[in-house]
UniProtKB/TrEMBL annotation:
Lineage of origin: Eukaryota, Viridiplantae, Streptophyta, Embryophyta, Tracheophyta
Superkingdom, taxonomy of origin: Eukaryota
PANTHER family in the record: ALPHA/BETA-HYDROLASES SUPERFAMILY PROTEIN (PTHR31479), ALPHA_BETA-HYDROLASES SUPERFAMILY PROTEIN (PTHR31479:SF2)
BP term (GO), one: lipid metabolic process
Protein's name in the database: Fungal lipase-type domain-containing protein
Pfam family, any one: Lipase_3
Fungal lipase-type domain residues: 22-71
Length: 224
């Protein structure tokens, strides 16, 4: 199904995802038009979003946009991109705390308050994420939810809740007056996560999710 034109377009789409600019692409504009039309002629409960890799990023953004309007669409996102550099868990804790501290410093900013409300509103939307721990494209979600649970257990959950809507990069650019969409695509409040223990060679593949022998039971992570 791939040809030279689609490969070039996919490269541009991947670049937009990496730079957190998917919301500015014609792809998401067309996707939103289609989803909005389907919701207008049917019930939201009858519509599912699905995608793999870059396609799951498009589906995720469409799902987030619809959830903000009160339409919670069933979403099945296979190997969705988590745009963050791989790092050790203790570094994630430090990043989370620094992000929370920066949020406290500038959260009186109107944009920050707006994002707080949006993230709380999004908590009712629980997309289904299918993640392979060895897939560098999506495995960040596993660390993302584990670190939230760990901080809850250590009694600093209230501080950690300040950080999720924002990225450290986004907050720093915002603090210095730079134009940046600090609502990162991959940051979501809630999800139902299913993992796979298939081989490393299949880590980013779609076929692995069609078998029962390597797929775990789903685990729900809720934002309170």
């Amino acid at each position: 199904m791939l040809n030279q034109d689609t490969k070039i377009y996919d490269m541009k789409l991947n670049k937009a995802i990496m730079k957190n600019k998917l919301h500015r692409t014609s792809c998401i504009e067309k996707a939103m038009q289609t989803v909005e039309f389907m919701v207008s002629i049917s019930e939201a409960s009858k519509i599912w979003l699905a995608g793999h890799s870059a396609g799951s990023a498009v589906a995720m953004l469409a799902g987030k946009n619809m959830a903000k309007r009160g339409n919670l669409l069933g979403s099945y996102l296979f190997n969705p991109p988590f745009v963050a550099a791989p790092t050790k868990r203790r570094h994630l804790v430090a990043t989370c705390l620094i992000t929370a501290a920066l949020t406290l410093l500038i959260r009186n900013n109107q944009d920050m308050q707006h994002l707080d409300i949006l993230f709380s509103d999004l908590s009712m939307w629980v997309p289904n994420l299918y993640i392979h721990p060895s897939d560098p494209i999506c495995s960040g979600y596993i660390r993302y939810f584990k670190i939230r649970e760990k901080m809850e257990r250590h009694g600093v959950g209230r501080l950690e809740r300040l950080a999720p809507p924002y990225s450290l990069k986004g907050l720093l650019m915002k603090a210095f007056g730079k134009d940046y969409c600090s609502e990162e695509l991959h940051l979501i409040p809630s999800a139902c996560v299913t993992t796979s223990c298939s081989s490393f060679l299949q880590a980013h593949g779609l076929d692995q999710w069609f078998g029962d022998d390597t797929v775990s039971d789903p685990v729900v992570h809720c934002y309170n």
